[in-house]
TrEMBL record:
It comes from the Eukaryota. This is S-adenosyl-L-methionine-dependent methyltransferase. PANTHER family: METHYLTRANSFERASE LIKE 7A (PTHR45036:SF1), METHYLTRANSFERASE LIKE 7B (PTHR45036). The lineage of its organism: Eukaryota, Fungi, Dikarya, Basidiomycota, Agaricomycotina. InterPro entries: SAM-dependent_MTases_sf, Thiol_S-MT. Pfam families: Methyltransf_23 (PF13489). Coiled coil: none annotated. CDD domains: AdoMet_MTases (cd02440). It comes from Rickenella mellea.
Amino acid sequence: MKLSSIFGLFTDLRFAIQVTTIPALKVIFREPSLLLHPRELSRLFMAKLWERFGYFVDTNCRPSKEALITPNAHGVVLDLGAGHGHTVNYLDHSRVSKYIALEPNALMHEHIRKTANTAGYTEVAGSFAILSCGAEDIPTIIRETGRHGVDTIVSVLTLCSVPDPALTIHNLVEEILRPGGNFLFYEHVRSPLKDVIWWQNFWTPIWSTFFDGCVLGRDTVKYISDAGQWSLKDAVGKADEDPENLFWHQAGKYVKAADEEPQSVLI
Ligand SMILES: C[S@@+](CC[C@H](N)C(=O)[O-])C[C@H]1O[C@@H](n2cnc3c(N)ncnc32)[C@H](O)[C@@H]1O
């Protein structure tokens, strides 16, 4: 494996430390009790980080998101780990009746509200809601959506951070997504190359400390694939991605089988 691939993530790591340290220290100085709450501290770092990274990451993934989300999101859309709500900008308003942004980090909520309102989705009109739980908190999600009340689930660079991803994805598909609904994802996942997987596992403890628990080499596509009965499975890589990239991306559309539908596997 090339040295540039092995150590490629250090540019991002250095930038992350640079942009988060001073603003986070200022907040900790005002609120020293945060030091006793590592989860809150990690969310503070992630919020500061996303203020600097969010726009660039969105720009970088735009072609994949336009191809995946715009034509396939419809009805009630649940956006897992909404961040600053960038997903809402890819929704076709004539096909999406409600945008539900699930984001456990409350420091992001103001950004989400602003982005959704600008895109024409508002709480007053009932076309927008924020859920401040994690994707694993199925009872809270059901209270907002009802059982099988969501037509589309979108996950962009979030399933790398959820606890127990296999179980979380299974429950979301089983309990939240309506039969015939779409599960759309754009995620960095486990590489198909053994030596790259080794380095993904090696760097994860350091990387996840700065990036809110993000695991580099999760087998997310397999977890989604195994999560339920699908009538369509369609996953593709990112155009021109270096096979040695530690952040190996897959974009996919999986359609939940309606009860009596036969299963067909495209990819
Ligand atoms: C890398 S950011 C991606 C944000 C957004 N999806 C985007 O692409 O711009 C990951 C997001 O997942 C959120 N997150 C972390 N743990 C989560 C969980 N258990 N359930 C749902 N979201 C979570 C983080 O707060 C963060 O906003």
